[in-house]
């Protein structure tokens, strides 16, 4: 298992989801994509849950690492 971290805080909002989907697509099964964002990415979680078959929603976790800094873990099955 490996973890890839993608900080999207400086990415324009309209480009965030495509960039995240591309990064997730490149993972192997069992890997985790950690997204660093300026807010809790609940809409992204729901989008992945509905549209990405390889997303392990049960393994999803998010932690607040400070003001305006959230880390969300998107595991791939």
Structure annotation, total helices = 2
Work out the helicity level: 25-40%
Cα-atom radius of gyration:
11 Å
Mean pLDDT: 97
Largest sheet: 4 strands, mixed
Query: How far apart, in Å, are the first and last alpha carbons?
Result: 11 Å
Work out the number of β strands.
Answer: 4
Q: What can you see in these coordinates?
A:
The protein has a 4-stranded mixed β-sheet with strand order 1-2-4-3, covered by helices on one side. It has 77 residues and is an alpha+beta fold. It has helices spanning 13-25, 42-51, and strands at 3-7, 32-37, 61-66, 69-75. The chain is 30% helix and 31% strand. It contains 2 helices and 4 strands. The chain is globular.
């Amino acid at each position: 298992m490996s973890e890839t971290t993608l900080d999207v805080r400086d990415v324009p909002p309209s480009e965030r989801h495509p960039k995240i989907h591309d990064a997730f697509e490149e993972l192997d099964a069992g890997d985790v994509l950690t997204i660093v964002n300026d807010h809790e990415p609940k809409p992204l979680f729901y989008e992945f849950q509905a549209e990405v078959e390889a997303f392990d929603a049960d393994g999803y976790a998010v932690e607040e690492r400070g003001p305006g800094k959230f880390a969300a873990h998107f595991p791939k099955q």
